[in-house]
Amino acid sequence: MALAASALRSTTPRQAGFLQVLGHNLRYLIRRHQAILPLSIRARLASTMATPWQIRVPASDTGLLKWKQTDESAAKVSELLQKDLESHHVFFNAEGFHNHIVHSLLTLYATGASPSTLEEAYAENHSYQIKAMDTHSGVVEELKKGWTEGCPYLSKGKYYPDFLRFFQDEIEAKGWEKVLLEYVFKGDERSEAIFGRLFAGFLHPLIQLMYGIEWQQPAIIAEGLAQAAVHENRVGGFLTKAEQAATASAHTTSLPELFESVGQFSEKLATSARFDDKNKIYDGIFVRAPDEALEFVKQVKVHEDELDERLAEMVHSCAYVAAAAAFHQPNKPKFDFFLIHHLNSIPFFVTLLSFPWLRDYQKVRILEWKIRLDLIQYIARGCPPLRLDAIKSFVPKQDSSFATKPADLLPRFHEIIDDGHTIKVVRALLIAQELSRKYAGRPWIRIADDETWLKVHQILLQGTEGPQEPALWVRSAGFEEAWVNVPKER
Hints:
- It is a single chain.
- Residues 4-21 have low confidence and may be disordered.
- The longest helix is centred in the C-terminal third of the chain and has 21 residues, at 360-380.
- The chain has 2 domains: 50-232, no CATH class; 236-483, no CATH class.
- Helix 17 (280-288) crosses helix 22 (360-380).
- The chain is mostly helical.
- Helix content is 56%, strand content 0%.
- InterPro entries: Questin_oxidase-like.
- Keywords: Oxidoreductase.
- This is HypA-like protein.
- One of its GO terms (molecular function) is oxidoreductase activity.
- Pfam families: Questin_oxidase.
């Protein structure tokens, strides 16, 4: 298995940049000058090109894993994603719970799912979505005149259709790469308003954008940016302070060691979240230990000349933490619902850091923000003990012990029709295993061999396959209360 992003990294920066610019210019020319082309060619282009209004996923593009797919599955996933774009809102209830259809479908597709599995997954998640809404009179036009953090439409879900139309129009006019540079990475007040919000909502805006950039689908990129716009920016405010407080000193403590040493750094910080906090970050950490949190995460510093390894370290650490936090004897092992979001978002960074049109300092910044939030989320879940020993000693059920590699379990994972979280964890683990290979023997490596990686998948399968009481996931694994209703091992 070879990651698609590594193909870009195997070229020289000059070659990669040339290829990226060439591709963008070709798409721009085709969009702008279709009228001079023969009608038959225009019709064919319209039926195959992805645009801000049309989702088209080719069989040749299955994302980072580069696994083979069929034309039938490509047609089906394109059809269903288009339905979602046209039919559904970004939230499925008034509390702001997220529509995961894009995540579910593209991850199933990326791991070889059949058209019938894609159809079943869509049907399972279509029924409870909020219907797409119309834009509000004059709002899109007002946004086009310019806006900043004080914009009255930011952080309000009802304006999602307005931001979606705005970003669709911007991408149509400028191309998605230039829109990302302007509205996420420019560094002015407007782009900072979006940059910070990408990290809100348990990373859901960033994850939505992830699927857009990985498959280069302008419509999904517009969805991700619009989703970010309607989230609040509280976590972005904290991460901005952490960035300002961070020193330029060399990074000496590995990321896994930071997770493992929270209690040694500050018992006050490690116990700042409480199980009955409505939001364990905002109502726990940021209320009871804000200064300690700032001091802790400001230790994170990435240097431009170590981007590749620090990316791999972040990816590996998210896999390690999610898997090692799944144990609470005598209960059956369960992955933590909140920690898996930090694992499931790793393809965003693998893809983004491969883009030659993004400057190294911009890549450094977004990676540092992710690592700092990874640490905060772990603390918010009660700092669950990280039991690498339990992973290594785990004995799988006989019905999954036949597997010699994680891919052997994929048919079973495809039969778990949830909202997409399970198969996203599977894909993220596969990517993490592949990226970790290059750095075997590094001090930050925790999951060190193929047998242990396989056991991680078997642990996940055991906790998600078949009837699961009370749920597929444990929520906030560091708290005793979270495990009360989880069945015990027999």
